[in-house]
Amino acid sequence: MYEQTTIAAIATPPGEGGIGIIRLSGIDAAEIANRMFETKKLHNFHDAVPYMMYYGKVMDNDRIVDRGLAVYMKAPHSYTGEDVVEFQMHGSVEALRSVLSLALRHGAVPADKGEFTKRAFLNGRIDLAQAESVMDIITARGQAALVQAESHLSGALSQYVHETREKLKEFITKLEVTIDYPEEDLEDLTVDEISKALEEINQSLTQLITRSHRGRFIQDGFKTVLAGRPNAGKSSLLNALLQEDRAIVTDMPGTTRDTIEESIRIGGIPLILMDTAGIRDAENQVEAIGIERARKSMEEADLILMVIDGSVPLTDEDRRILSSLEGKKAIVILNKYDLEQKAGEAEIRSLISEETPIIHLSAQYVSGIDRLEELIQKLMHTEDLDAGRQLFLTNLRHMDLAEKSLELIHQAQKSCADKLPADFIVVDLTEAFHKLGEITGENVDDELINSIFQNFCVGK
Ligand code: GDP
Ligand code: ZN
To answer: Where does Mg(2+) bind (predicted)?
Structure first.
């Protein structure tokens, strides 16, 4: 056990709710519960049957703070691997804070961000990749992200890393024999065998990395840009799409002031909708920067929704934007369909490629939005979204380590082909072995561990 302290935190989000959970973990968890929780069933909370729910009262001396359930999870069979007590109280900010401060008064210390999961890792309950997937589950946007995070937590990634490292280890050992006993004529046999094995590892890593690059949207969503000149109806369309998706809209923090970003899902397809329009509506002096930024975001977009005001004739700016759609996934939207249409559809057709669909709708009257959504689904659906069974890397740290390992494998293959001495190959393979190990947390330093868990929330 790595810590003698007992940590405590509110594990549920702040705000009113049906229930709220306070979690204690550490050597004194049961004793602290004993001092603050009263239940008719027990004289002493130390005697609690593990995993049994006890109904009772949290007491601050003679005062009842709140009523609820308590459960004792005995080390090592708990989330953290330590003694854990969880109180299920009413989901009231005041009640939960009072229960927490009581626990602190009785000897617990406030848990740091992610400290429960960090303890689970340090106590060997889960490896680092699994610990990170816990946070991915909490922050998953969309079904595909959840499926991946869950599979990482189940150990699919850890298993892959483990198997690949085993193969590397096997060949490192064989090569070391040839270094130590050069007179043993193993060379020819091993070089062939090793080239073949390295090629297999190379291919499997390459596929994993390519698939993960392609599947980046599983975690982030497809970058979708609302393009079009001022007043075409971009903001109205954004609102119409958000309205339809109101229940699952989340605000994305940290977006720039003049770009509105919203994360939404359309029939299971995660999108990050970006309305760059605000830039152009803003003061004139920033217009140049705005145009540049809008152009850049169009370049980076996975999907462009080009909005045209259908009630007025096409302008040069419309033509310019239409011509820039070449080679991009895009949908041209003739908006304001409730008004008389004056934008020439034939001309629009002539400016865009055949595959780019044109659709009419009215953003203001939220009419035709469902057809747009169908179109988006059809256009953006990829097998990766269904590929729950395939392993993806969704974490940048893992991706970086996998790419570094692949590079080292490449190097080793080259040394092999160039018939360099075995030492060279061993050095690269050993390094690749370590890099892969960092994914699951072998030989990682405290600093890295701390920085990873700092991204967690308190109470997890
Ligand atoms: P943006 O500058 O491209 O973001 O355009 P806005 O969404 O701000 O809309 C510009 C103006 O067009 C506003 O006055 C809207 O009310 C109006 N508008 C947007 N969509 C429609 C529509 O479908 N029909 C009509 N009649 N007006 C619309
Ligand atoms: Zn706008």
So the answer is: 235, 256
ipTM, 2 decimals? 0.98
Residue 87 phi/psi, 5-degree rounding, is -105, 125
Nearest by Cα to 239 from 299, 294, 307 = 307
Phi, psi of 338 (to 5 degrees): -70, -15
What is the distance in A from the centroid of ligand 1 to the CA of 358?
18
Task: State the greatest distance between any 2 C-alpha atoms of the chain, in Å, as a whole number.
Answer: 90
Domains along the chain with CATH numbers: 7-127 (3.30.1360.120), 131-214+392-440 (1.20.120.430), 218-385 (3.40.50.300)
- Closest Cα to residue 108, out of 9, 221, 212, 210? 9
- Of 362, 364, 366, 372, the residue with max ligand 1 atoms within 8 A of its CB, to mutate for a pocket test, comes to 364
Quick one: which of 310, 368, 319 has its CA closest to 341? 310
| Residue 411 vs residue 186, higher pLDDT | 411
Atom of ligand 1 nearest to the CA of 335: 23
**Rg for the chain (alpha carbons), in Å?**
29
- 439 contacts 128 by C-beta, under 8 angstroms: yes
> 292-346 pLDDT, tens per residue?
777 788 888 999 999 999 999 999 989 999 999 999 999 999 999 999 999 989 9
3-class secondary structure, 330: strand
> How many C-beta atoms surround the C-beta of residue 94 within 10 A?
10
**Gap between the Cα atoms of 45 and 69, Å rounded:** 13
Read off the DSSP letter of residue 368: S
Average pLDDT of the chain to the nearest whole number: 87
Closest Cα partner for 61 from 85, 100, 35, 24? 35
- Portion of the chain with pLDDT greater than 90, in percent: 61
Pairwise CA distance, residues 268 & 438, whole Å: 33
Binding residue ranges for GTP: 231-236, 250-256, 275-278
Q: How many CB atoms lie within 10 A of CB 434?
A: 17
- Give CA separation, 212 vs 57, 149, 216, 350, 387, in Å: 50, 13, 6, 37, 12
Report which protein residue has its CA nearest ligand 1's atom 10.
Answer: 231
Of the candidates 65, 70, 110, the one whose C-alpha atom is nearest the C-alpha of residue 87 is: 70
Q: Is 230 in the pocket of ligand 1 (CB under 6 A)?
A: yes
Q: C-alpha 175: how far from its chain's center?
A: 39
Q: What CA dihedral angle connects 74, 79, 84 and 90, to 10 degrees?
A: -130
